[in-house]
Amino acid sequence: MKSVIHFIGAGPGDPELITVKGRRLLDAADVIVYAGSLVNPKLLDGLPARIHNSASMTLDQVIEVMSTAFKAGKNVVRLHTGDPAIYGAIREQMIRLDELDIPYEIIPGVSSVFAVSSVLKRELTAPEVAQTVIITRMAGKTPVPESESIADLARHESTMMILLSAARIDEVVRELTFGGYTEDTPAAVVERATWPEEKIITGTLRDIASKVKNTGITKTAIIAVGKALGYESSKAVSKLYDAGFSHGYRKGDEGILKDKE
């Protein structure tokens, strides 16, 4: 390992969904600070490293553990859930490490957003239906800018992946429909995508809230909404494999399967 602190995206839950590089660096770590119940503990099984659960730690304590270990010549890993670029709270940690002149690298991971797409067996974009994906959350203890309210974002009618908001599903649905989505817009709520205890609830904005209430889902879940999630969106097809469409690797329908001359 290089002499840097490694921030690693652990993936969404399935321990096999960490990247090869992330797994290698994790196995070689001397000190690991991991994101509590959000990271599958199986990723840590059998590791000889000193392991700290950041769920009960303050930012000062996290930085103290990492900086002390780094200055002692230890291989340090900060293990975050999914991909740390989304609601990972790594910005404040990087600022503090910059102030201490401690180098670090970020190893990306599989976001829970894309894990939800995989377990729903849906593309988040669909030709002529939705070509934009919005990742957002409801305002809570962490505020959201007024210009990024759910209702304002809903007017685009793109695919929306709403994190950290399942406990307020009624309010989310009200904001979505007020913003522009119709009640028959496909919607889903997925709790702990790719974990053994994964739950998948599907429906529309008309009934998704009542369905979710019956399951007791309140956290570690993503609300997905948009026309691209519906089967009917598959009727529009991409030009990528259209036999009559030319691009840099294929000239229309000429010689697609033809042997080289």
Specify the helix fraction band. 10-25%
Please provide the ordered H/E string of secondary-structure elements.
EHEEHEHEHEHEHEEHE
Rg over alpha carbons: 22 Å
**Count of helical regions:** 7
- Unreliable stretches: none
Number of strands: 10
CATH architecture descriptor name of the largest domain: 2-Layer Sandwich
- From the helix content, strand content and strand pairing, which structural class follows? alpha/beta
Distance between the termini: 49 Å
Estimate the strand proportion.
15-25%
CATH superfamily of the largest domain: Tetrapyrrole methylase, C-terminal domain
Spatial strand arrangement across the major sheet: 3-2-4-1-5
Overall, the morphology is elongated
**Could you give a short account of the major beta sheet?**
5 strands, parallel
CATH topology assignment of the largest domain: Methyltransferase, Cobalt-precorrin-4 Transmethylase, Domain 2
Task: Quote the average pLDDT.
Answer: 90
Q: How many structural units, i.e. domains?
A: 2
Explain how this protein is built.
By secondary structure, this protein is of the alpha/beta class. It has 2 domains: about 5-105, Cobalt-precorrin-4 Transmethylase, domain 1 (3-Layer(aba) Sandwich), CATH 3.40.1010.10; about 110-235, Tetrapyrrole methylase, C-terminal domain (Methyltransferase, Cobalt-precorrin-4 Transmethylase, Domain 2, 2-Layer Sandwich). It is about 25% helix and about 20% strand. The protein is built from 7 helices and 10 strands. It has helices spanning about 20-25, 60-70, 90-100, 110-120, 150-155, 170-180, 210-215; strands at about 5-10, 30-35, 50-55, 75-80, 105, 135, 160-165, 185-190, 200-205, 220-225. It has a 5-stranded parallel beta sheet, sandwiched between helices. The chain has a 5-stranded mixed beta sheet with strand order 6-7-10-8-9. Strand 8 and strand 9 (about 200-205) form a beta hairpin. The longest helix is centred in the N-terminal third of the chain and has 13 residues, at about 60-70. The radius of gyration is 22 Å and the shape is elongated. The mean pLDDT is about 90.
